[in-house]
Amino acid sequence: MLFFLLSSLSTCSCPSSLQSFNDNNNGGGALDEVDRKERISATKEDIEWIKDQIQANGLHMQDNILRKGINPRTRAQQLQDLIQFKGISHYEGPESENHTALPCPGELLVEEHHSNYGEPWAGGRDVFEFLAESSHLSPNSRVLEIGCGTLRVGLHFIHYLCPEHYHCLERDELSLMSAFRYELPSQGLLQKRPLIVRGEDMDFAKFGSRVVYDLIYASAVFLHMPGKLVWVGLERLVSKLKPYDGRIFMSHNMKFCSRLGGEECTKRLTSLGLEYLGKHTHDSLLFNHYEIWFEFRRSKA
Ligand SMILES: C[S@@+](CC[C@H](N)C(=O)[O-])C[C@H]1O[C@@H](n2cnc3c(N)ncnc32)[C@H](O)[C@@H]1O
Questions:
Q1: Whole-prediction pTM value?
Q2: Does residue 221 fall inside a structural domain?
């Protein structure tokens, strides 16, 4: 009994590679037990299943009336209620502060930070699925995110990876607050011990000198950074990327390089020991949106 309980708690007992999914599955047919465990994104069968559930419950893919609940509130009203009434049941008096281990600011409790960067929060799952499957990730892999923001993407990696295997460098205080004071505790991810470090200079010293990553990614980050800083970062990261199999992915554009001109861009990447592998797009599961990604690997050991 104890064995079953412990093994169900550990994601690290999962198979160590997505490779056999990619080799065996052509997108059709029923997945056997092993494929199911290794797959990250929804299968055609999963999508058919949820569509059947929607239909069986008298709902439609479009045209439903989204009737509001018994006490509809915007985020701003919810926050006001929290400040004014402190929720339905709450402690009063001098002891009132002693019952909450991690008191969280109201703005985070009403999830204002889910709208911080404009993109729908659900898109974080799309990014995770694309990157994890493209880089053949396993729970044992090590991942570094540059600019993880409010963990829109990162929390899916933290859920999936073994404890301590997710690292992030982020400069913004509000984003770090959202991550530490709301997302990690509210998602039950404290035991995953992600290493999230405050910084803006592409200084990776705090992540240790010996760590080697299977995946390094920047989702909607490099386009906001001065090109010079992106080059500094890449130069420092090359030796931290697993030779050949490790991948760097960055989204939106690679203007830091392309604005130098094709030949010069390739020359500079080569001089760092990086090879550009190509441009990819992937579609969102939930909304009409696709994201563009640029993939790199080490060209020398
Ligand atoms: C558009 S947000 C994207 C956040 C997250 N990656 C996502 O997809 O939801 C860009 C993030 O990059 C961070 N960022 C920008 N420049 C940075 C730098 N020099 N070092 C670390 N983080 C940086 C910002 O603080 C912000 O959290």
A1: 0.88
A2: yes
Residue 261 belongs to a domain: yes
In the reported structure, the alpha carbon of residue 171 is separated from the centroid of ligand 1 by a whole-number distance in angstroms of 7
Give the residue numbers spanning the domain of 169: 123-298
Residues 6+ apart with CB under 8 A from 16: 138, 139, 140
Q: Is the CB of 200 under 6 A from ligand 1?
A: yes
Express each pLDDT in 174-228 by its tens digit. Answer: 999 999 999 999 999 999 999 999 999 999 999 999 999 999 999 999 999 999 9
Closest CA to 17 of 161, 156, 140, 158: 140
Domains: count for the chain: 1
pLDDT in tens, 76-135: 999 999 999 887 788 988 888 899 999 999 999 999 999 988 889 999 999 999 999 999
Residue 74 lies in a domain: no
144 lines ligand 1 (CB under 6 A): no
The Å distance, Cα 75 to ligand 1 centre, comes to: 24
CATH of the domain at 130: 3.40.50.150
Smallest CA separation from ligand 1 atom 10, residue: 221
Pairing of strands 290-298, 247-251: antiparallel
* Ligand 1 pocket check for 225: Cβ under 6 Å: yes
- Beta carbon of 123 within 6 Å of any ligand 1 atom: no
